[in-house]
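_Per-residue structure_
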Amino acid sequence: MAPDWTLVAAGLALGYLLGAIPFGLILTRVAGLGDVRAIGSGNIGATNVLRTGRKGLAAATLLGDALKGTAAVLIAAHFGGQEAALAAGLGAFLGHLFPVWLGFKGGKGVATFIGVLLGLFPLGVLVFAAVWLGLAFLLRYSSASALAASAATPVALWAFGQGRLAVLFCVLALLLWWKHAPNIRRLAAGTEGRIGQKG
């Protein structure tokens, strides 16, 4: 049966609008800390929010960036079915990476990747977390751990018999890797900061 392309388009649009909510920017401004893009890496994600010294704000940013992806796919699935949910997941990820309100300059997508995964196939989050935690413990590089976990996700989804999800998360992982190009260059040069490293 062919998908209802109107519902698919609606799911994509819904996902994009939710994904484009810049929680890091909103929360830091509400807290009176100014524009988070003016510090550190200039990113709007939780890692850069943490550079304000406010761990609670960073945690709230991480949660918000994840749950907007979860909300997008669950709402789309309820009203439009699986095809709309898949489109919403893609839309939420694209919205986070390329928010129209911020000149298409958004975050790197790790939290939203996890949130979309949680909404579509919760068991996949355990795979992501296991890979991330294992490599973070061994290597002490958050970025490398996230990159490896994102690459492992579509493989795990395929192994679980979730072929369409595997294709979607392959696309999301490629975008995530592209957004992490500066981190990859620093990893190759040996200049990437380690977890817990100061300065």
The radius of gyration is 17 Å. Residues 114 and 171 are 14 Å apart (CA to CA). The mean pLDDT is 93. Residues 5-189 form one domain.
